[in-house]
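Lab manual, section 2.4: Encoding a predicted structure.

Procedure: take the sequence of the chain (253 residues), apply the prediction step described in section 2.3, and record the output as structure tokens. A sample record is shown.
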Amino acid sequence: MERWQGKVAMVTGASSGIGAACAKALVCAGFVVVGLARRQERIAQLQQELPTRFRSNLHACKCDITKEESVNDAFKWTQQKLGAGVDVLVNNAGIIATTELSARQNTNEIRNTIDTNLLGTVFCTREAFNSMRERDVEGHIVIINSVAGLQVPNLGPNLPSLNIYPATKFALRAMNEIYRQEFQRYKTRVRITTISPGIVDTDILPTSIRNVVKDMLPSLTSEDVADAVLWAISTPPNVQVHNITIKPMGEKF
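Recorded output:
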């Protein structure tokens, strides 16, 4: 990780769960981290969980990644605040609509899921890549995906439908390959990796559903996913880690 010391990493959805774990892990690995979230105050709380010597290297930036202008402003803020562009981007922000896909009056949930999981990733990746390309630097973009992007899990009648969520994750897998091809087309030193975890114990699900899932199925921790992010970006510059799939022991999918 020596080549990344003092470099800037940006993490979306950094206020909780996987995003918070990634932000903490990257700061402790020597990065200056910008955490994007609508709940900016949660990142300020996260700072207090860090060892004192690292706290000044975590910065909170309020951002709604579903809004293109908000994303653009976050990248401008990072450049102005830190005097540097983003070298590592972790696209983590994501949500799940838990109504049935075939149900009536679920349009807002579907749109919000697509806007967050797909368009948010597009907006952030576009800004990060072009900054890396213009500066001609080594860069790494990570997309937190899901095993639901590899196979649609059948959760059975006792758990809710995953709605449009798996479709967005399948799309992220396709986007990963498109980005890889585009980054090579311009002969950049930017790499792209997706990380596809199984069930992770986070608050992406409503508490009532989350408790049922925890009782029925094994799960990973957010720190497990953050470890995979660190491993991917620590590989040599000539190595393209295309996708990492991690599952909890005992998972039946």
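Check your result against the sample. The beta strands are 8-12, 32-37, 58-62, 88-91, 139-144, 190-197, 243-246.
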